[in-house]
Automatic annotation (TrEMBL):
Organism of derivation: Salana multivorans
Keyword Ribosomal protein listed: yes
GO biological processes: translation
Gene Ontology cellular component terms for the protein in this record: cytosolic large ribosomal subunit
Membrane-crossing residue ranges in chain numbering: none
Descriptive protein name: Large ribosomal subunit protein bL25
Family recorded in the similarity comment: Belongs to the bacterial ribosomal protein bL25 family. CTC subfamily.
GO molecular function: 5S rRNA binding; structural constituent of ribosome
Length: 193
């Protein structure tokens, strides 16, 4: 399901106008796509923060004078020091339309005792309906042993979600934890014996 944010059209542009908007607890945004002219918007800061904090691929219904539009958050620009949201790019989407998005890979479970896992892909590029984008793709490592490799083709993607990534591409590898002894400790131990 999508959230709803009420916005207003912007008529002023540039750094000064953007700063005034931010001081007024508004985030400058642009809505574009499907061959339409870009619509410049001002959105409430708190609503935008709540929208993007939980999902990198949030879908939102934007309500503004002139109608309502369904949009996918395409880009979030943040201040490098304060981490405040400075600008938002929104891609116009239609219900039922497939979009390409990067979805994070999330590991669940514990691999066999004495092993650890290494993610080879932190995100997967997926094609999904705009209103049905998974928040994460889970990889279950429960009980996996040394030498196990989980590949893209092994993943269980939600219904209607596809990927064009090579099915043989590694997502995760499980390996035995190896302890490397420090040479100084080894020499000290030999001298004491």
């Amino acid at each position: 399901m999508s959230d709803v944010i009420n916005g207003t059209k912007r008529t002023e542009f540039g750094k000064g106008a953007a700063r005034r908007l931010r001081r007024a607890k508004q985030v400058p945004a642009v809505l574009y796509g499907h061959g339409t002219d870009p619509v410049h918007l001002a959105l409430p800061t708190h609503d935008v923060f709540m929208l993007v904090k939980g999902s990198a691929n949030a879908v939102v219904e934007i309500s503004f004078e002139g109608g309502k539009e369904l949009a996918l958050v395409k880009s979030v620009q943040r201040d490098v020091v304060s981490n405040d949201i400075e600008h938002l790019d929104l891609l116009l989407v239609r219900r039922g339309e497939k979009v390409t998005v990067d979805v994070p890979v999330h590991v669940v479970g514990e691999s066999a005792v004495g092993t650890n896992h290494q993610l080879e892909l932190l995100t997967l590029e997926l094609q999904a309906e705009a209103t049905n984008i998974p928040e994460v793709i889970e990889v279950d490592v429960d009980g996996l042993t040394d030498g196990t490799v989980v590949r893209v083709g092994d993943l269980k993607l939600p219904q209607g979600v596809t990927t064009e990534i090579d099915p043989e591409a590694d997502v995760l590898t499980v390996s035995e934890i190896r302890v490397v002894e420090d040479e100084a400790d080894t020499e000290t131990g030999a001298e004491e014996a």
